[in-house]
Amino acid sequence: MSDPFNIDNDDLIIQSDNDQQKSAFPEPMQDVTIDSSSHGINNSIDSSERRGHQKTFTGGPFSLNYYRKYFDLNTKDFFANCWKSLNPFTKLDQYEFQQVGDLYGPVWITATLIFLLFFCNSVAQIITSWLLNKSEDDTETLHINYFKILLSSINLLYGYIFIVPLLLWAVLRFYFKVVNVIPVTKLISMYSYSNILWIPAALLSVFRGLLANHNSLDAALKWLCIVMGSILSGAGILVRLHQYFSVIFGSESEQDSKKHLGVLMGALILAHVGFSLGVKMCFFGKL
């Protein structure tokens, strides 16, 4: 009689109960050390993640990639900025004064405003010439005037939104020696978005063509368009800049703070009035 416990298969391995219990559970994960220097991994949260996934672009001022950050704007953000600018008395959050702003708005909003002012003025002139039955020679003169208006308006509007913010930034940076001075691109952006409020005045100027035989009403409508556009756009600029000046001069004495605020605000008001008169002369003729 053979022994039932006699097993001739040498390949069979019998494990103890302790070994079976160990094999029933997976081994814990081992600690893995990753060399951050070789894989570019940071032990802390990425700073761009803390800033809301803000993009960074490499390159110097002579590289096109350097200027991409000023045009990195989607459609939703652009229209949100436009919507916010429609209320000239809306104040900005304090952190917004340290944002770089964008140059997409200054380029396209100003171009749109130039086109609207030029188009509306041209339509008004065409209606006037049609009502007065002007000759062909006068029509050719009008075409020449259109070209002059277009060139002068480009110089005036683009010059205003770039030169005035640049001068203001230089005064704050080098004369008042403001430490955390607002970026010049943010100032340019603020000026350009405020010019959206000139659009209703431009559209209103079309009705001048119907007042060809009423010189006094025509002149009154011209000044109404200029005053309305100047006040609305100027309020949008000055309210936000007054808010910023109150922050940077808040640590000074009350007398010095009022003095600096008065000088800067007065200079900006004069610059805006001069710009508005330039628009009047550019599109509507003499003062």
TrEMBL record:
A single BP term in Gene Ontology: vesicle-mediated transport
| A GO molecular function held by the record | small GTPase binding
An annotated GO cellular component? Golgi apparatus
Q: Read off the InterPro entries from this record.
A: Yip5/YIPF1/YIPF2
Superkingdom field: Eukaryota
Q: Does the keyword Ion transport belong to this entry?
A: no
Q: TM spans, by residue?
A: 107-132, 153-176, 188-211, 223-241, 261-283
What keywords would UniProt list here?
A: Membrane, Transmembrane, Transmembrane helix
Q: Which protein are we looking at? A: Protein YIP
Organism expressing this protein natively: Eeniella nana (Yeast)
